[in-house]
Amino acid sequence: MDEYPRFDLTGQVALVTGAARGIGNSIALALAHAGADVALGLRDAATAGSLPDEIEAMGRKALPVQMDVTDLGQITAAVEAVESQLGRLDVLVNNAGLGPSDLAENVTEPNFDLTLAVNVKGVFFASQAAGRMMIRQGYGRIVNLSSQAGFVALPTESVYCMTKAAVAHLTKCLAVEWGRYGITVNSVAPTFIQTPGTEPDLADDAFRADVLERIAGLHRIGRPMDVAGSVVFLASPAASLITGHTILIDGGWTAR
């Protein structure tokens, strides 16, 4: 009989970008809970807060690394630090992202460039740096953070939507190229999640009511751990035949 599916990550090493807060913070904790040692990719390594202590309290190793994903040198140095201090890299979660809101006719070039630099360029080069190591290992799991915004249009978010659609397609491209090395590449696409970044918008009663109505299946705002569960699954042996796929974590938003 075939082996039963395994969802644990015992003995593996993961790197999560943008791990300081919100979804990235929850993903890091969930990966540690599943058994992985976790490197925390941070734009400012001093912002790790209590996260390393929480991970180490689970009996796992935690390694904060300086990793501004707009800086190729920092990306390379961070991945090298993971290899030198934790021995290998099995899982990369490209979580770092941003999306300044503005009407399309008012978008500025600096905001356009910054959004692409973090959401697309950063994802590609972090994947490249990790992918090179994973190719040598003959094994790896890459999970990208896309968004439902890559599949539906959100007013005032044209550039953000464009970048998240690009992440979903890049996921397919890398999956096809790197599958022969034992590497899977997938992405998750959340709806609005209750995080420090979305808190100001969701504090507006009319906006919150509209979001709840559009989340047509479940009518609730998502929590960071709702996203983390799918990331752990895609990183686990149970998802070994899934690659090039984007899982929508949208409560039914795109179903209607």
Task: Report on the architecture of this protein.
This protein is α/β, with parallel strands linked by helices and 256 residues long. The protein is built from eight helices and seven strands, in the order E-H-E-H-E-H-E-H-E-H-E-H-H-H-E. It has one domain: Rossmann fold, CATH 3.40.50.720. Helices cover 43% and strands 15% of the residues. Strands 3-2-1-4-5-6-7 form a seven-stranded parallel β-sheet, with helices on both faces. Strand 2, helix 2 and strand 3 form a beta-alpha-beta unit. Helix 1 packs across helix 8, helix 3 packs parallel to helix 4 and helix 4 packs parallel to helix 5. The model has no long low-confidence stretch (mean pLDDT 95).
List keywords for this structure.
alpha/beta, seven-stranded parallel β-sheet, Rossmann fold, about 45% helix
Short overview:
By secondary structure, the chain is of the alpha/beta class.
Write the layout of secondary structure elements.
Layout: E1 13-17, H1 22-33, E2 37-42, H2 51-56, E3 62-66, H3 72-86, E4 91-94, H4 109-137, E5 140-145, H5 158-178, E6 183-190, H6 199-202, H7 205-214, H8 224-235, E7 246-249
Parallel strand pairs: 1-2, 1-4, 2-3, 4-5, 5-6, 6-7
Query: What order do the helices and strands follow?
Result: EHEHEHEHEHEHHHE
Mean pLDDT reading: 95
Low-pLDDT windows of residues: none
Radius of gyration: 18 Å
* Silhouette: globular
Distance between the termini: 40 Å
- Main sheet summary: 7 strands, parallel
Instruction: Please state the second-level CATH architecture.
Output: 3-Layer(aba) Sandwich
The quaternary organization reads as: single chain
Would you identify the CATH H-level superfamily?
NAD(P)-binding Rossmann-like Domain
Number of discrete domains: 1
CATH topology type: Rossmann fold
Structural class: alpha/beta
The number of helices is 8
- Which CATH class is shown? Alpha Beta
Strand segment tally:
7
* Helix content percent band: 40-55%
